[in-house]
């Protein structure tokens, strides 16, 4: 089992940048594919980005392609989400998630991730 703690959220103006971090407990971090999702009140939790166990493969939601970058540092048990050119519609609670299953693809749906952090709020002002 893994425990996840997000940090780095805050308030930023449109066009600005933020970097989110997700620290994982345990010594088996490299066995989990990792992802970021986001959610606004009253809506579904949407896929943002994901990264394979080794970090060699990534996947992004259409709305963030070219603006967000997911990365990981297995030696530090941490996954990052660099968010550039932020827009007001990026405002949401951002969640880190871990997938323990061995897959030939990178999972991009909520139900495929077994472990979740508590979330961190990102607010982009116009």
Can you put this structure into words, describing what you see?
By secondary structure, the protein is mostly beta strands. 0% of the residues lie in helices and 47% in strands. It starts with a strand and ends with a strand. The mean pLDDT is 97.
Attribute tags:
single chain, four-stranded antiparallel beta sheet, 11 strands, 126 residues, seven-stranded mixed beta sheet, mainly beta
SSE layout and pairing:
Elements: E1 4-7, E2 10-13, E3 18-24, E4 33-39, E5 46-51, E6 58-60, E7 68-73, E8 78-83, E9 92-99, E10 115-116, E11 120-125
Parallel strand pairs: 2-11
Antiparallel strand pairs: 1-3, 3-8, 4-5, 4-9, 5-6, 7-8, 9-10, 9-11
How far apart, in Å, are the first and last alpha carbons?
40 Å
| Mean pLDDT over the full residue set | 97
Number of H- or I-type helical stretches: 0
Summarize the helix and strand pattern as letters: EEEEEEEEEEE
Radius of gyration: 13 Å
Structural class: mainly beta
**What percentage of amino acids are in beta strands?**
over 45%
For the secondary structure, the number of strands is: 11
**Most strands sheet:** 7 strands, mixed
Could you estimate the helical fraction of the residues in percent? under 10%
Query: What is the general shape?
Result: globular
Low-confidence stretches: none
